[in-house]
UniProtKB/TrEMBL annotation:
<dbReference type="InterPro" id="IPR001986">
    <property type="entry name" value="Enolpyruvate_Tfrase_dom"/>
</dbReference>
<feature type="binding site">
    <location>
        <position position="655"/>
    </location>
    <ligand>
        <name>3-phosphoshikimate</name>
    </ligand>
</feature>
<dbReference type="InterPro" id="IPR036291">
    <property type="entry name" value="NAD(P)-bd_dom_sf"/>
</dbReference>
<dbReference type="Pfam" id="PF20463">
    <property type="entry name" value="PDH_C"/>
</dbReference>
<keyword id="KW-0963">Cytoplasm</keyword>
<dbReference type="InterPro" id="IPR046825">
    <property type="entry name" value="PDH_C"/>
</dbReference>
<keyword id="KW-0560">Oxidoreductase</keyword>
<comment type="subunit">
    <text>Monomer.</text>
</comment>
<dbReference type="InterPro" id="IPR003099">
    <property type="entry name" value="Prephen_DH"/>
</dbReference>
<feature type="binding site">
    <location>
        <position position="435"/>
    </location>
    <ligand>
        <name>phosphoenolpyruvate</name>
    </ligand>
</feature>
<feature type="binding site">
    <location>
        <position position="480"/>
    </location>
    <ligand>
        <name>3-phosphoshikimate</name>
    </ligand>
</feature>
<feature type="binding site">
    <location>
        <position position="407"/>
    </location>
    <ligand>
        <name>phosphoenolpyruvate</name>
    </ligand>
</feature>
<feature type="binding site">
    <location>
        <position position="335"/>
    </location>
    <ligand>
        <name>3-phosphoshikimate</name>
    </ligand>
</feature>
<keyword id="KW-0808">Transferase</keyword>
<dbReference type="InterPro" id="IPR023193">
    <property type="entry name" value="EPSP_synthase_CS"/>
</dbReference>
<feature type="binding site">
    <location>
        <position position="482"/>
    </location>
    <ligand>
        <name>3-phosphoshikimate</name>
    </ligand>
</feature>
<feature type="binding site">
    <location>
        <position position="339"/>
    </location>
    <ligand>
        <name>3-phosphoshikimate</name>
    </ligand>
</feature>
Length: 750
């Protein structure tokens, strides 16, 4: 985080006199950092141990020391209490009469409700100038001699201000911590204690307890002598300060007891599974835990899945020109991958999936089902084995289901979860949090669902369980496969018949796959119907390559002289082939070879060769059939001769980005003029594409479309914010470079 303007060398310090009560590792390190960065004009220390105070001055940790806490706080505009949590109350009582009128009082304790209680008991109320804090930093070393100015660098500091707190004081305290290099978050004190009980206090308790148990075994020497690295890593925290941890557990009693109870119940479950030879249960717990840990590592390493939480920036750099040659298979279909997990989980028996897309979006769906108690093995090279739990076998997840960037996951889940017995909350990343959910929430409410959305019908969605749904007859106002699928899934749980009519054909994977699982779905023209009371039977699903991912290469080959490329095993479901129809109408040379049916879906190999393209008026009936392919079709239009006109495509404005505007802006950066309309765009072909920097707005398909544009550009193209390419096409870079697109990837940030 950048250093605040109001602090640092050469500018006015944030505070005039900072008193630090307690010069241990944390108090000492904060004092040292504040002095070094000149965030306070003077830093005064107070501690029971005079030796530490003397050392503090000698080591340059503090400017001066005070003989008592009362003297330290007099005239101070910032007081930081850094004593053990159990000693907070007596320190507060001692300093209270001596605090100055405009003081900001904070602490650095590991538990926060205990500090709030201590403040209330001493002051008789909650003053708006008290802001509790907790830097999540530490070391196995303790004491002032271990204090370092960089202890908080890149660490989180949680502040738990009251709702009525003084906002200017909060801003100054935030700037102080940011000036020490920390990342500052705020949350309510009780939430802080729950989170820390689970993520820090319980692991410490287990480490202490495990080492203690093993140390008591008769062959303990052997146990420790032969301890492998894993044991050492796992128990490292058992050498932390016993007094401090004794304090923490007694201060955070309620939250810790709750999580210990959870853990001991789960541990007892594992014991019983081992005792009774219940391998299925062990596999379920272990694979769920492994997946959760991997998911967590991804969050920490900042992959696309959690772009809002990470600082990682992925930039594509493309050299102009290149060739398009080869024989490739793009990853599995995203829509079918989501549905294979959903229906496999709700089926009875085991479902084996091949060709599963291991992209962030479909992995989010997979993780969500694990969170609801479904055992899922894999994915392993596109192979997934789902141990279905039946339509009524899902369990309540313990936390909100995080669906990353995936609109499909959120909308389909809304329908599926509206009919469950338990409550759920669905959340997503920054882009998903802006997308409209009223289109599913409104008809679901008509069915009797109870769903709360954030303002403007946006996520998160809070879905109340235990509602009796009833079937409705619904005419969709927009052509959306997600809305249709959402209602059909809710229909599996609704009394009577659920009837959905679409204004134009949209992808029908839900209907086909339900039938593939043996669940009756009636389809007549634009209408699909389901009734509850049926069952799904597990089986095998072969997910073909995603035509939406193949589209980038269909255009790449079409616009590149000399190109000849074969794309294997591509799904050519008639509700998905708009891109083929549109490109062919523009003059593309695409042949469909080896047409066959695999698991209820038509599949073929597509051979595409360079051909001169011409602009067309895109038929509106093709729009829903090519809805995800327009970003790259716009690139085809730029390379075509004559004008291309798109109308009836307002849905493009509510995808992962406003794809009409973002494409127009990106093209403008490359010197290509377009005319944006409310529901489409007009592109005059034949305009040269120069070098430039394009902002993909975190939209995977925008990033990949401009990568294809480079084949015909005259200079280098830089595309920013590309991490989300991993949502649908994790190996895009590898395949693009394999065929001859000159793409390199740069990553920066944490
Ligand atoms: C999808 C439907 C489409 C599409 C999305 C996947 C699906 O969305 O854009 O990428 O799997 O059902 P809409 O239903 O909003 O058109």
């Amino acid at each position: 985080m950048a250093r605040p303007e109001s602090s640092g060398a050469g500018s006015a310090p944030l505070f005039q006199r900072m008193a630090v009560i307690g010069l241990g590792l944390i108090g000492g390190s904060l004092a040292r950092a504040v002095r070094e960065k000149r965030l306070a004009a003077r830093v005064i220390g107070a501690d029971q141990r005079t030796d530490d105070l003397r050392a503090g001055v000698e080591l340059g940790v503090i400017d001066e020391w005070a003989p008592s806490v009362a003297e330290a706080v007099q005239g101070a505009d910032l007081v930081v209490i850094a004593v053990p949590v159990r000693a907070m109350e007596s320190v507060l009582a001692e300093i209270q009469p001596h605090l100055s009128g405009d003081v900001l009082l904070t602490d650095v304790g590991s538990t926060k409700t205990s500090f709030v209680q201590a403040v209330e008991s001493v002051f008789g109320c909650w003053p708006d100038w008290v802001i509790p804090g907790h830097p999540i930093a530490g070391s196995e070393k303790s004491g002032i001699t271990a204090a370092t100015a960089d202890l908080f660098e890149k660490h989180k500091v949680i502040l738990t201000p009251s709702e009525q707190g003084d906002t200017s004081k909060l801003r100054r305290l935030t700037e102080l911590w940011a000036g020490c290099g920390a990342m500052v978050l705020t949350m309510p004190a009780d939430r802080h204690d729950e989170v820390l009980a689970a993520t820090s206090h319980l692991p410490h308790l287990i480490a202490f307890s495990l080492v203690d148990t093993l140390a008591g075994e008769s062959d303990n020497l052997d146990i420790f002598r032969y301890a492998a690295g894993g044991f050492r890593d796992f128990t490292r925290i058992a050498s932390s300060d016993p007094i401090m941890w004794h304090d923490i557990f007694l201060s955070n009693r309620e939250a810790v007891l709750k999580v210990i109870d959870h853990f001991t119940a789960d541990l007892a479950g594992l014991r019983e599974a081992i005792d009774t030879g219940d391998g299925r249960k062990l596999l379920q717990v272990f694979s769920r835990a492994k997946a959760a840990r991997d998911h967590f590592s991804k969050m920490l390493s900042g992959q696309a899945y959690v772009t809002t939480m990470s600082q990682k920036q992925v930039t594509f750099k493309l050299q102009p020109g290149g060739s398009v040659q080869g024989d490739i298979r793009v990853p599995g279909d995203k829509s079918m991958s989501h549905r294979s997990i959903m229906l496999g989980a709700l089926a009875e028996g085991v479902t084996e999936v091949d060709g599963f897309l291991e992209g962030e979006d479909s992995l989010a769906t997979l993780q969500a089902f694990r969170d609801m108690g479904v055992t899922i093995e894999g994915p392993d090279n596109g192979h997934v084995r789902i141990h279905g739990v039946g339509l009524h076998g899902l369990q309540a997840p313990r936390a909100p289901l995080y669906l990353g960037n995936s609109g499909t996951a959120m909308r389909l889940f809304a329908g599926l979860l509206a009919g469950q017995a338990f409550d759920t909350e669905l959340t997503g990343d920054e882009s998903l949090s802006k997308r409209p959910m009223g289109r599913v929430a409104d008809p679901l409410r008509e069915m009797g669902a109870v769903i709360e959305t954030a303002e403007g019908g946006r996520p998160p969605l809070k879905i109340r369980g235990g509602q009796a749904l009833k079937g409705i007859t619904y005419r969709m106002p927009m052509a959306s496969a997600q809305v249709k699928s959402c209602l059909l899934l809710a229909g599996l749980y609704a009394e009577g018949e659920t009837v959905v009519t679409e204004p134009a054909p949209t992808r029908d994977h839900t209907e086909r796959m339900l039938q593939g699982f043996g669940y009756p779905v009636t389809r007549e023209g634009a209408t699909a119907r389901v009734r509850s009371g049926g069952k799904l039977t597990g089986g095998h699903i072969d997910v073909p390559a995603d035509i939406s991912s193949a589209a980038f290469f269909l255009v790449a080959a079409s616009i590149t002289p000399g190109a000849d490329l074969t794309l294997r095993h591509v799904g050519i479901n008639p509700t998905r082939v708009g891109v083929l129809n549109i490109l062919r109408q523009m003059g593309a040379d695409i042949t469909v070879e080896n047409e066959r049916e695999v698991g209820g879906e038509p599949v073929a190999d597509l051979r595409v060769r360079h051909a001169p393209l011409k602009g067309i008026a895109i038929p509106e009936d093709q729009v829903p059939l090519a809805i995800d392919e327009f970003p790259v079709l716009f690139i085809a239009a730029v390379c075509a001769e004559g004008q291309t006109v798109l109308t009836g495509a307002e849905e493009l404005r509510v995808k992962e980005s406003d794809r009409i505007q973002v494409m127009a802006d990106g093209l403008a950066e490359l010197g290509v003029k377009t005319t944006v309309t409310g529901d489409g765009i007009v592109i005059d072909g034949g305009q040269p594409m120069a070098s430039g920097t394009v902002d993909s707005h975190g939209d995977h398909r925008i990033a990949m479309a401009f990568s294809v544009a480079a084949l015909r550009a005259t200079g280098e193209i830089t595309i920013t914010d590309c991490a989300n390419v991993a949502t649908s096409f994790p190996n895009f870079r590898e395949l693009a470079t394999a065929v001859g697109i000159q793409l390199s990837v740069e990553e920066s940030g944490s």
